[in-house]
Backbone:
């Protein structure tokens, strides 16, 4: 009996110990699970924080912009409009442009600058650098920019990333000329003209010329002179003068040039000739142009020509247009009127038809040096002996600002020159080497 009671007591104690052990193990497991949950929550918080940091970093990268000069900081905050229709007054460009007023722009959008003659133009190149100065012209995928720091710069259009033009310019877009200010960002070009903002694609921009339409904005030129004076055993005076006047807009180009030479040795004239050439070009495409008309005037006392006038028309094409080399040619027809000196022959005038061919090759060398070459052939179909050739090669060295040192070689040739009073025929070829100074304006 006592043994049975003892066994029962032992069994009860063992069961209590087992229950206590089970409760202890369960508590420990619960503690472990709770710790694991805390760790998981901490990991999730860390992952969320990391994700937020990554998103912020990505946003910072996406929002990052190329640094701009302080003068252009307001540009980033300016509003401008999304695409919209052109005003009803201008239905021809309804598909290519937008015409809302700046006041109607939505926040966060950008508009071109207001017109200002005092602000500088800005241009950004592919390296990210900004140039400050005057955006002069864009033609045939080449930009002429007068930098405030680096003087005149000529570079390819594809190297320009964007521009900001508060000074008025004329823009040729889709065959239409628009006056105003503009801004280019990537592939989007916006032009402010009056109270309208027009939007185009970069590829639709054909040419740009500086100026708001005022006549003086279109003109530029160059003057040159060379002189030789000698006194003593020989009394000699030689004077050579050159000049060029140019008017350029977005779609037209007018150039007139003069070259004259006079020489006197011991009070007797030995050289006296003058040439004036004018041409008005209309660009039909980026490279194809039409000369309507051109006029060439020439006189030479020692070629027995009082005056030779050749008006005509021609088609021209720019075959090469790069940062360093320009090559263009033209071919056309002309009427040639020639008036000879009284002593040459009884019939002092001639009327002929000529085929006119011109070519020019201009190169820009390092160090601000230009080497320009031109050739002109007037092939007279009705009188081959009157056929003439004229060629010039000009080496221009940049000395200071607008002042250049010019070295020029000139060749003139008449196929069958007239005879003088003594029945002696003048020489066919005339060569001159000239050194002088040129002034750009």
Residues:
């Amino acid at each position: 009996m006592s043994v049975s009671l003892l066994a029962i007591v032992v069994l009860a104690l063992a069961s209590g110990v087992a229950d206590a052990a089970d409760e202890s193990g369960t508590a420990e497991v619960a503690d472990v699970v709770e710790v694991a949950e805390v760790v998981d929550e901490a990991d999730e918080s860390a992952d969320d924080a990391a994700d937020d940091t990554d998103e912020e970093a990505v946003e910072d990268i996406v929002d990052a912009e190329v640094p701009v000069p302080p003068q252009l900081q307001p540009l980033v905050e300016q509003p401008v409009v999304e695409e919209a229709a052109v005003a009803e007054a201008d239905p021809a460009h309804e598909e290519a442009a937008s015409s809302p007023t700046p006041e109607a722009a939505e926040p966060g959008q950008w508009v071109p600058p207001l017109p200002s003659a005092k602000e500088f133009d800005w241009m950004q190149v592919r390296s990210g650098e900004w140039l400050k100065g005057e955006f002069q012209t864009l033609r045939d995928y080449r930009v002429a920019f007068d930098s405030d720091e680096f003087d005149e710069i000529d570079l390819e259009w594809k190297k320009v990333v964007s521009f900001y033009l508060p000074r008025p310019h004329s823009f040729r877009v889709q065959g239409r000329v628009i006056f105003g200010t503009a801004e280019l960002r990537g592939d989007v070009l916006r032009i402010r003209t009056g109270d309208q903002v027009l939007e185009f694609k970069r590829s639709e921009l054909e040419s740009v010329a500086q100026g708001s339409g005022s006549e003086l904005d279109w003109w530029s030129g160059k003057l040159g002179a060379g002189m030789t004076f000698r006194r003593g055993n020989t009394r000699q005076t030689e004077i050579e003068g050159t000049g060029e006047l140019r008017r350029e807009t977005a779609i037209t180009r007018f150039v007139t040039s003069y070259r004259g030479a006079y020489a006197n040795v011991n009070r007797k004239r030995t050289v006296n000739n003058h040439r004036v050439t004018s041409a008005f070009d209309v660009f039909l495409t980026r490279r194809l142009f039409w000369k309507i008309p051109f006029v060439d005037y020439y006189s030479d006392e020692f070629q027995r020509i009082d005056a030779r006038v050749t008006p005509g028309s021609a088609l021209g094409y720019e075959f090469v247009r790069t940062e360093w080399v320009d090559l263009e040619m033209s071919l056309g027809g002309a009427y040639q009127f020639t008036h000879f000196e009284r002593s040459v022959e009884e019939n002092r005038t001639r009327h002929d038809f000529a085929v006119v061919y011109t070519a020019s090759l201009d190169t820009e060398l390092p160090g601000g040096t230009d080497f320009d070459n031109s050739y002109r052939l007037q092939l007279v179909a009705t009188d081959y002996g009157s056929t003439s050739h004229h060629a010039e090669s000009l080496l221009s060295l940049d000395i200071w600002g607008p002042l250049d040192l010019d070295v020029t070689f000139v060749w003139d040739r008449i196929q069958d020159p007239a005879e003088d009073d003594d029945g002696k025929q003048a020489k066919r070829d005339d060569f001159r080497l000239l050194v002088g100074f040129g002034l750009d304006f």
Notes: The radius of gyration is 40 Å. The chain has three domains: 37-64, 70-213, 218-440.
